[in-house]
Specification:
single chain; mainly alpha; 2 helices
């Protein structure tokens, strides 16, 4: 089983991959419609919105939490965080 390098989601079946391409290192939620991986900014915005929607957080707190979460992942590990 692979884990998405951009969000940490476990990828257990072909449907978890962009365009069912199991050679990708990222999941379908971290891919654009063309199958390429989203940029950091796109992923940060999406994760922030997800946390607001599912956790009821305000935007600033959700953005800070998303940045901390993304910083631990291989795709984004060496990026500087803007909230610290």
């Amino acid at each position: 089983m692979k884990t998405c390098i951009a969000c940490g989601m476990p990828m257990t079946k072909a449907a978890d991959y962009p365009q069912n391409d199991e050679s990708k290192e990222y999941c379908l939620y971290c891919a654009r419609s063309d199958g390429f991986m989203q940029s950091y900014e796109e992923k940060l915005e999406g994760m922030t919105d997800f946390m607001i929607r599912t956790q009821g957080m305000d935007r600033e707190a959700a953005c800070q939490m998303a940045e901390r979460s993304l910083a631990k992942l291989p795709a984004w590990k060496n990026r500087e965080q803007s909230h610290e």
